[in-house]
Amino acid sequence: MDTRELVIEVRDLVYTHLRDTPFAVQALKGVDMEVWRGEAVAVLGPTGSGKSTLVQHLNGLLRPQHGRVRVLDYDLSDPNVDVRALRRRVGLVFQFPEAQLFERYVGDDVAFGPRQLGLSREEVRARVREAMEAVGLDFEGFKDRLTFTLSGGEQRRVALAGVLALRPEILILDEPLAGLDPAGRRRLIALLRRLKGERGLTLVLVSHDVDDVVLLADRCFVVADGRTVMAGTPRELFSHPPATLAEFGLRPPSIMTTMHALADRGIPVRRHCLTVDEAADELARALEGG
Amino acid sequence: MESLELRRHVTIGQYVPTGSPLHRMDPRFKLVAFVALVVAVTFTGSYLGNVALLALMGGLILLSRVPARYVLGGLRPALPVLLLLAALQVLLYTPEFTGGEGCVTLFRAWFVHSTTCSVKLAIVSAARFVELLVLTSLLTLTTTTTGLAHGVEHLFAPLQRRFGFPAHELALTLTITLRFVPTFAEELERLIKAQVSRGADMGGASWWRALRRARALLPIMVPLLLGALRRAEMLVLAMEARGYVGGRGRTRLVELRSTPHDAVALLLALLAAAAILTVPWPW
Ligand SMILES: Nc1ncnc2c1ncn2[C@@H]1O[C@H](COP(=O)(O)OP(=O)(O)OP(=O)(O)O)[C@@H](O)[C@H]1O
Ligand SMILES: [Mg+2]
User: Fold this and answer.
1) What is the pLDDT of residues A87-139, one digit of tens each?
2) How far is A18 from chain B (nearest CA, A)?
3) Residue B138 and residue B135: Cα distance in Å, rounded?
4) Residue B14 — left, alpha, or beta (φ > 0 → left; ψ -120 to 50 → alpha)?
5) What is the reported pLDDT for B267?
6) Model pLDDT for residues A178-231, shown as the tens digit of each residue
């Protein structure tokens, strides 16, 4: 029916951490998700719902115990699949940068991926410089800094740079905006939009923050208690009544809450505005009309 | 298919509360019983003696109510090494080396020399390894960190009074060491995940590609050790921030109290150890 390419397909995925031990936790009980090339998809859901477990499947860190995960041309249920090749095309930024960083020096950490690709010294250097500058880290100033003395926000950027340096086709980010200051958030959102627009990257991002999601995502999946419970565009998702959203640990975007309040007071505005710009237009229209 | 979840197979240093009789046992008595059984394992070189010990271990696992599958899962990572070791013992240990009387040569060619003695040595060594692993795992699986620390400290207290032996410090060091085994496994798992997620090669799915695996482990070892040092520093900071001053003048939240049951349990363990050591096992 359409010519878009399906790049990620997750069907009825089930996963138990520490299976066969007394510490086993069933994190996924049946997740479905699909992502088309070039789109930005958000995974939403309450704490502990299985979002991180889900995205770790997408670059083969975890293997499906039941169900199907297909990413690009790789079927991850196949024990002989070349996960190494997959991981070079699908970059995963971990939820906690301190879990992802391991080299002593920032420059070495960012260079780890390109070195695995067997690139020449110059090429590795160029990629590291490019990746660090893309995330707003000055190459000369940061490459010789000790990784573990960086601030949380700086570590987060180094972690992202380390993945960008691989130049992945699909970029998966687990809570990339957590712990950044407002300026850092704006810059990262702008960077992600640019990557998507200019390089045609496919983005999968896990987030708690619906305000960030509406700025970035074309579509959303809501995971609750290890299952996909809702899917759709942000507009479809947030047109559910706030009570339904609250059931899955979500709230409408802040601006939408404001619009609900205005509408409740009899001001003739549409309730379902997702962004501030949209709300401003809507208010202007209402004021002129009134 | 390779799973990166190393922690599934690290049983030493974990604690699994099941409320079993082994969990309820006074840690001092448990420690003495543990030492007695370790001695029995160490000095039992016969087939039948080891069969008895293995049966005893099975009984203890049942008693602990920790799933047997989990306890024995700790063997998995050691399996390749165990097999390799056994093979070397069988093939290369000559009768002079194994020192047994009446060894029958099974196979001999070039430098390879297998006898009934070297086969026995290999089997008995493997059995002992299993027994020791089960014993150590069960000790930590059924005893809390504080329980272990207090137990060790109590047992060495007389030495401290007489000779100023640092019992408290020893107890602390021992328990931190044991408890850090799973932490170390977690850290290793983290590093492997961090590196493979950026395209590193972990030597493929099969353990017999040992060489490739060993090479892939090199870039992991350095951060692993550095990470351990960092963690140790953090631990020191955390302890000092809470005003830790060492053993002198410390009081306890939970005083150890032994019951007649503990004495009976210890007696049984001592009897079992003594019996296994003294019975003249025919082979
Ligand atoms: N490595 C692990 N070992 C054991 N249990 C785990 C592991 N990772 C996650 N879990 C458990 O699996 C469940 C889902 O965890 P997950 O990290 O996927 O949730 P999440 O949706 O990402 O949560 P958050 O929003 O807090 O990041 C939780 O109950 C968690 O305790
Ligand atoms: Mg998470």
Assistant:
1) 999 999 999 988 899 998 999 999 999 999 889 999 999 999 999 999 989 99
2) 5
3) 5
4) beta
5) 93
6) 878 888 888 899 999 999 998 899 999 998 888 888 888 999 999 999 999 999
CA distance A162 to B147: 44
| Global ipTM | 0.87
Whether the Cβ atoms of residue A107 and residue A143 lie closer than 8 Å to each other:
yes
User: Is the sign of the CA dihedral A214, A220, A225, A229 positive or negative?
Assistant: positive
Average pLDDT value for chain B = 84
3-class secondary structure for A103-114?
Answer: CCEHHHHHHHHH
- Using DSSP's 3-state secondary structure scheme, residue A153 falls into helix
Q: Are B195 and A102 in contact (CB under 8 A)?
A: yes
Nearest CA to A171 out of A140, A134, A146, A141 is that of A134
Residues of A whose CB is below 8 A from B199: 84, 87-88, 113, 116-117, 166
Q: How far apart are CA A269 and CA A283, in angstroms?
A: 7
Question: Position A197: which residue type?
Answer: G
Chain B residues bordering chain A (beta-carbon distance below 8 Å): 1, 3-5, 7-8, 16, 18, 66-67, 69-70, 73, 190-191, 193-201, 205, 223, 226-227, 230
Q: Is the dihedral of CA A128, A133, A136, A140 positive or negative?
A: positive
Query: What is the phi/psi pair of residue B197, to 5°?
Result: -65, -20
DSSP lists the bridge partners of residue A231 as A221
Residue A202 forms beta bridges with which residues? Answer: A170
